[in-house]
Amino acid sequence: MGDQKVIKNLKTFSTSAERFEGSHVLCPGCAHSIIVREVLNATNDNLVVSAATGCLEVCTAIYPHTSWDCSWIHIGFENASTAIAGAEAMNKALRNKGRISADTPQPKFVAFGGDGATYDIGFQWISGCFERGHDMMYVCLDNEVYANTGGQRSSSTPIGASTTTAPAGSTSYGEKQVKKDMLQIMAAHGSPYVAQVAPNKWKDMVKKIQTGFATKGPVFINAMSACTTEWKFQPHQTIEASDLAVDSLVFPLYEIVNGTELNITYRPKNIVPVRDYLAFQPRFKHLFKPENEHIIEEWQKRVNEKWEYLQRREEARV
Amino acid sequence: MNRKEMELNSVEVWDGNTCNAQAFRQASVDVVAAYPITPSTNTVENYATFHANGYVDGEFIMVESEHAAMSACVGAAAAGGRVATATSSQGCALMVEVLYQCAGMRLPAVLCLVNRALAAPLNVNGDHSDMYLTRDAGWIQLDSFNAQEAYDLTLMSFKIGEHKDVRLPVISNQDGFLTSHTAQTVRPLPDKVAYDFIGDYVQVNAMLDFSKPVTHGVQTEHDWHFEHKAKQHAALQGALPIVEEIFKEFKKLTGREYNLVETHKMDDAEVAIVCLGTTYETATIAADELREQGIKAGVIAPRLFRPFPLVQLAQKLQNVKALACMDRSAPGGTVGALYNEVAGALFNTPARPVLRNLIYGLGGRDITVNELKEIFTDLQNDAKNGKLTGKIQRLHGVRGPELSFYEL
């Protein structure tokens, strides 16, 4: 492993590696590009990257162009994790056989997938990779919706969001299910390190990515990726939307080490009501009708309970 | 290499699955990612035993599904090394998506496909449903008729797929149970001879070569997709002479001859059977017995199902008067897949034989020498009349009233 990269400030950090070039066609304001740059910039090590079918993939590798100045592969929607596991196994095999010399620095293996590729269709493949203990990092770009196909619900879509396949209507408040708790599920796989990150808290994020890269075994990172197109905010409001998510504790920033040690890594000085987070995004606007207000109340209650739970777990070290 | 040498006798008694595993071992495969399924399970079981005892030094990953097995193989192949796996039937069906991706990326993986019926109804026995399912996936497909051939062709699969002008994945087919579970005498090559024949793996656009970053699996639209697919098709077509060259090289090494189209007594044959898999050997026995009665019977089989040796097959059928095309897969509302290929090969030739289609042996049902002799007898009527004496297609050996379809 290379030396841990020293991060001085955001300006130098944002240009400290050019492995993800600006020539992509992601939407203006898309958090994916910010997160991906932060992940790739966090290390100087050689990288082998896979991407699941989705916004990131279709916007960064359109023949004959590529935005990736590192080894990169896309296979399918569900198997980005297993593709990178295969590459990781090949690295091991070639070193064992002496075809890659022992003094060649170890590369890092990273898979990116959206929430559809992670929470839904690719879940089995990720579970298999984590059970087998491949030395890899899986980063979920969690924008809580199938954005690439035009805004369908996923099992990461939060309750009350209006999507094209769970639309709000005269008799429906939109998505009926509560968002799946992917981080706890991945921690329960026995992963040595799992963490939630958000691009607005970039130092916290880079620290966690570096911890992940320094960890042997399968690492899961759930990155909140605000989606200007589907959450329906203005392109310049990405960081503001992300701030509201973490300051309302809708998306708490924490990590779990070895499935037991839980650390809350960001405690908002002023906790923002969930209502403010929801009001910022037109995908939730119907929740402010009198008949749907109870969803907002239930949501606030659940966020409070989860925050309470995380703090207790942090304290109890279990 | 850290692996232990394995002592082999000049003649071994191996089943087809052992042949696959031994070929993987001798090819010194770098990554095998697999998931068990009858009747191909023993391939990876044998390989696991080699791994557990230090006879192989690659990575062996037992993944959670066949789809993941091929996904890991694709990732590993793109990383820059030799990969292989085995499957059958439903496992193959689950893999199909990734088979297309592997071929589209021009990654030379090897898949030992132990042919078995597809559900429903669930059936673990051999037919060619899974071979046909992978027909258009862009893989080269070789077909063996016995255990020796399964060993030879799996070995050759690595050399064919990795050839610098081919760079395509290869499926090595064999009949489920009939070949995979039947112990036969097999003459293996010594380890070093086998490995030297295949040669070292030569990396092309390897992800682990960091001096030259590479993007695999891009997206295309109408602007480029057609050109990519055209080049892939051309690469498959272009593989035929290379396969032939490798067959010749193998003959020089072993004395064992392989051809793009295998023939038995076809030089003067008037009636012939064209088939795949183990049926070839049974049909040769039937033909030999009929020859003793003065009937000019022959057997012909494409050694490759993909790329299909269309021209080579047609050339060998110009003197045949009547031909039965045997398809071991449920036809699904049309003539059999092999019939389609053969008909396509013959349509533009000057002297094409009368052609009939027999659907047979589904779900592992036996076909006997006597049955094949009866088929030859039917062909004699066709040959005598110079036209079809019944309908184009018959479901041969099915219980109940005879089922025949398609009349012109």
From TrEMBL, chain A:
Keywords from the UniProt entry: Oxidoreductase, Pyruvate
Residue numbers spanned by region Disordered: 150-173
The keyword Oxidoreductase is assigned to this record: yes
Gene Ontology molecular function, alphabetical: oxidoreductase activity; thiamine pyrophosphate binding
Residues of the Thiamine pyrophosphate enzyme TPP-binding domain: 53-222
One Pfam match: TPP_enzyme_C
GO terms of biological process kind: small molecule metabolic process
Comp. bias intervals (Low complexity): 154-172
PANTHER family in UniProt: PYRUVATE SYNTHASE SUBUNIT PORB (PTHR42897:SF2)
The name this protein goes by in its record: Pyruvate ferredoxin oxidoreductase
From TrEMBL, chain B:
Database matches in Gene3D superfamilies: 3.40.50.920, 3.40.50.970
Domain called Pyruvate flavodoxin/ferredoxin oxidoreductase pyrimidine binding: residue spans: 23-246
Domain Pyruvate:ferredoxin oxidoreductase core as annotated: residue spans: 269-371
Presence of the UniProt keyword Oxidoreductase in the record: yes
InterPro entries: PFOR_II, Pyruvate:ferred/Flavod_OxRd, Pyrv_Fd/Flavodoxin_OxRdtase_N, THDP-binding, Transketo_C/PFOR_II
GO molecular function, one term: oxidoreductase activity, acting on the aldehyde or oxo group of donors
Protein's GO biological process: carboxylic acid metabolic process; response to oxidative stress
Keywords recorded for this protein, A-Z: Oxidoreductase
This protein's name: 2-ketoisovalerate ferredoxin oxidoreductase
UniProt organism field: Halarcobacter ebronensis
Lineage, uppermost ranks: Bacteria, Pseudomonadati, Campylobacterota, Epsilonproteobacteria, Campylobacterales
